[in-house]
Structure to design on (765 residues):
């Protein structure tokens, strides 16, 4: 370990540090620590600004997967700019753009400095009226027969808005640039001053298809700050809900992927089977997306014996249907021909971009927060990591199927040995002047939340990093050299969140 | 091929018999239309209103829940010391007028009325809708999508979600309408040939939901476009959305009229 990196403070995911004890580094040491750590394989899980008179302090959170811990450093900026580290460390490219947009600080030397969300700045005068989403200086390829295709923000399917700009030569895509921000609702700004009665609803709807994932990450932050430990029963139920969310989403994605190549049996069966898994969550809490299920201190609902039996029985039925529907897909040569070799993201690119979740594992990156930084029930009940290697649409689809099988086993085992005791405990008050970090492996990948509390125990800054924040760049990369007609297939193979990115 | 056929047999026929038959089973813990018994309120108690994250509950002149703001999180019912506010199982929540979404004890359920005769002649047998997500969290979008699966099979009612506003008779809007989607929603609405309808699905699209009064959003669709049908929920159950659409087209009117008489 270099001298610079050794100055970073260490903590576990789901833990806190007192803010006065956070390392306050000179820029040169801060930058050296970041570059040194990422060169040794640590990942940047959060890198953001927070106001500190007279300017801004930058906070860096790195994940050391092998050491199962996190490293934190900070540096105070005095001017209106800072040197960009993107040229040496591409995985910070969007974080730096975000810092520029939120705090008006210019990362000097950033190769790609464009808006992230077209959001009003979190500090200083608002120039919002001057910014029109989707109006940026798009990368352009010039030349004979080169043409440009613009898609969105309103798409043909029932999906969220975003703008995609393709530079094409005939059917082939030279370059895809993605411009988002249409979904920006001001969640991080609104969480300031919390926790309050609306806080959890912001997280449940930050990416509404990841209600359990973001809800759990939020609860782990609050519990860490309040020195509260949810009981085993509540933790188990959260784990079950997290895996049910994964089962539903992965089953739906496999159906949608089949639909995009015109293989209708799997498409229509899986569309329904997704609903069967969502309905299991609804049996637990009344809502198909798990709203109100996870709450600080445990869960808002409990299971009795008859419900456990009902869930087990319906899980088996849904899983059997899922197996029959999904196996058809692998046996269809025409579907596999479309999946294999399409939208490939090589392992080294996936690592450089800091990819997360099934997309990272499909490219052979062995990372999964449930194993590497376990919290809650995952500390006691392990789930094997599913890996692919080809990094194409096939690998992203197949990793999902492997994860479906492992999640089903996990839920089955946990229901069969459902812990006794209470499902929820009282949560005390949040400690002032602390930093808390949580990592939760949602179905799209690792969700990172970071909270800074002020001297009154209120959120001074709440940072949310959805896995989509990292993974959208991979979709853009995957399209290079592909046919534009394969865009829907490539897009669905990532199935990223627009609102989780835009916040 | 044999495997395909075997899978086909295993998967079976899954399309609901509803509305010809009974509606599908809802989960036991489903939170539908609130049930108010304001007489049961303790003097001066305001626990429910204090617990509500979106200010959906008012106590003056009488206990009232605005379903347009309600997230159906159940915090109010949990906070109520006397059981004067609970959530029932009635999934029929959609309304034609924004004011009809405010539930009081004396007038509990006001089902959505059908379009007028002329509009029903136009849309009753074929309604094409374009969906616009304007800050939606993919909850409402997913539940709208579900209506096109084999279980719900929206096509059997002549209703279809189409790819372009130019092909559509109206819009389904989800999300609180972010400032960054305001122009796109407006343009999409203008691209639909008149006469046209707008359906606002979910608490966000009706009132802003959790994003109520955020400067980054516009408190729902009717700040930007006129709305013909409001479907409450966070997100609404697919059955609630289907019920609203069918009522709008007058396909459940007779049943509704019967219930109103009861």
């Amino acid at each position: 370990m270099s001298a610079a990196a050794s100055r970073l403070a260490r903590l576990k995911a789901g833990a806190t540090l007192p803010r006065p004890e956070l390392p306050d580094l000179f820029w040169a040491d801060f930058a050296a620590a970041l570059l040194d750590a990422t060169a040794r394989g640590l990942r940047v899980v959060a890198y953001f600004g927070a106001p500190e008179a007279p300017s801004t302090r930058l906070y860096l959170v790195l994940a050391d997967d092998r050491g199962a811990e996190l490293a934190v450093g900070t540096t105070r900026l005095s001017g209106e700019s800072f040197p960009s580290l993107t040229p040496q460390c591409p995985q910070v490219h969007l974080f730096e753009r975000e810092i520029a947009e939120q705090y008006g600080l210019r990362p000097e030397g950033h190769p790609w400095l464009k808006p992230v969300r077209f959001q009003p700045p979190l500090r200083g005068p608002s120039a919002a009226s001057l910014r029109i989403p989707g109006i940026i200086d798009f990368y352009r390829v010039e030349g004979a027969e080169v043409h440009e295709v613009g898609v969105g923000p309103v798409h043909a399917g029932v999906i969220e808005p975003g703008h995609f700009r393709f530079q094409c030569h005939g059917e082939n895509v030279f370059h895809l640039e993605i411009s988002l921000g249409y979904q920006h609702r001001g969640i991080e700004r609104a969480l300031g001053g919390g926790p309050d009665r609306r806080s959890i609803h912001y997280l449940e709807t930050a990416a509404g298809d990841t209600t359990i994932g973001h809800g759990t990450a939020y609860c782990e932050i609050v519990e860490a700050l309040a020195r509260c430990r949810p009981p085993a029963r509540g933790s188990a139920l959260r784990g079950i809900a997290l895996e049910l969310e994964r089962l539903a989403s992965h089953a739906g994605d496999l159906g949608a992927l089949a639909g995009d190549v015109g293989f209708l049996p799997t498409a229509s069966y899986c569309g329904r089977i997704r609903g069967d898994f969502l309905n299991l969550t609804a049996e637990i809490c009344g809502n198909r997306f798990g709203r109100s299920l996870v709450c600080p201190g445990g869960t808002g609902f409990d299971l009795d014996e008859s419900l456990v039996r009902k869930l087990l029985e319906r899980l088996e039925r849904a899983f059997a249907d899922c197996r029959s529907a999904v196996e058809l897909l692998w046996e269809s040569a025409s579907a596999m021909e479309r999946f294999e070799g399409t939208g490939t993201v090589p392992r080294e690119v996936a690592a450089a971009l800091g990819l997360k979740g099934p997309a990272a594992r499909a490219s052979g990156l062995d990372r999964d927060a449930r194993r590497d930084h376990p919290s809650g029930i995952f500390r006691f009940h392990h789930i094997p990591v599913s890996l692919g290697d080809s990094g194409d649409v096939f690998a992203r689809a197949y990793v999902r199927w492997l994860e479906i099988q492992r999640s089903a086993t996990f839920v089955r085992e946990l229901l069969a040995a459902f812990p006794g005791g209470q499902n929820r405990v009282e949560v005390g008050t949040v400690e002032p002047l602390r930093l808390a970090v949580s990592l939760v492996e949602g179905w799209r990948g690792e969700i990172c939340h970071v909270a800074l509390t002020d001297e009154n125990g209120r959120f001074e800054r709440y940072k949310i990093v959805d896995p989509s924040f990292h993974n959208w760049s991979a979709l853009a990369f995957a399209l290079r050299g592909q046919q534009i007609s394969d865009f829907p297939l490539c897009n669905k193979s990532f199935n990223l969140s627009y609102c989780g990115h835009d916040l | 091929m044999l495997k395909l056929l075997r899978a086909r047999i295993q998967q079976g026929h899954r399309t609901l018999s509803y509305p010809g038959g009974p509606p599908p089973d809802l989960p036991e813990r489903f939170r539908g239309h609130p049930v108010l018994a304001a007489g049961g309120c303790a003097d001066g108690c305001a626990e429910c209103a204090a617990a509500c994250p979106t200010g959906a509950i008012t106590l003056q002149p009488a206990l009232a829940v605005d379903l347009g703001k309600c997230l159906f999180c159940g915090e109010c019912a949990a906070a109520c010391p006397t059981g004067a506010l609970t959530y029932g199982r009635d999934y029929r929540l959609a309304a034609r007028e924004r004011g009809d979404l405010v539930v009081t004890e004396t007038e509990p359920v006001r089902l959505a009325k059908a379009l007028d005769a002329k509009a029903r002649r136009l849309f009753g047998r074929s309604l094409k809708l374009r969906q616009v997500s304007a800050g939606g969290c993919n909850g409402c979008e997913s539940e709208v999508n579900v209506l096109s699966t084999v279980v719900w099979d929206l096509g059997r009612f002549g209703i279809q979600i189409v790819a372009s506003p130019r092909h559509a008779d109206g819009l389904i809007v989800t999300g609180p309408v972010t400032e960054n989607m305001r122009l796109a929603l407006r343009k999409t609405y203008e691209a639909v040939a008149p006469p046209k309808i707008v359906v606002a699905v979910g608490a966000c699209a009706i009132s802003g939901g959790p994003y109520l009064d955020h400067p980054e959003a516009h408190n729902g669709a009717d700040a930007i476009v006129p709305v013909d049908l409001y479907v409450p929920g966070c997100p609404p159950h697919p059955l609630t959305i289907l019920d609203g659409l069918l009522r709008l087209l007058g396909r459940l009117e007779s049943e509704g009229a019967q219930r109103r008489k009861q």
In short: Chain A has two domains: 5-116, 191-467. Residues 118 and 132 of chain A are 7 Å apart (CA to CA). Residues 232-260 of chain A form the longest helix (29 residues). Chain A touches chain B through 63 residues (CB under 8 Å).
